[in-house]
Specification:
With 161 residues, the protein is of the alpha+beta class. Helix content is 20%, strand content 35%. The protein contains five helices and five strands, in the order βαααααββββ. It is elongated and about 60 Å long.
Amino acid sequence: MIDERRTIEQRGLYYEEFDLGVRYLHRPGRTVTEADNVLFSTLTMNGQALHLDAAWAATQPFGQRLVNSMFTLSTLVGSSVAQLTQGTIVANLGFAEVTFPHPLFHGDTLYSETIVTAKRLSASRPGQGIVTLGHTGRNQSGDVVATAVRTVLVWCEEEAP
């Protein structure tokens, strides 16, 4: 028997669906644990004591270990994938203006949002477009902990495989 229910497959947006100035809130947030920070830092061979040595970090200006900023950036971008680029991205083209204006600590929750800041059709890749995304991450108190501008190459709907 054929299932006649309507089927919806979750995907990101095609080039035509990105509208300038739209702000996407990516939910749920992600509460960062000590295990996340230690595992990410060691997997990426980042032995920075500021991420791993609680006693030493306690003597530093923030008085505790900081979440690895690359974990923060990865989670910020990763939280946007399901809503914006899942299955519609061709490639990340680059990152610019990455900042970490406030530290993220163990137990903080990262809330991410993205604003579409620019888009144009690709001159060299027919059927694809270039979209610029401004990502912002905030902790549970609303403090901005990370920002990044990401440029992505995405499929146009009619050309998608």
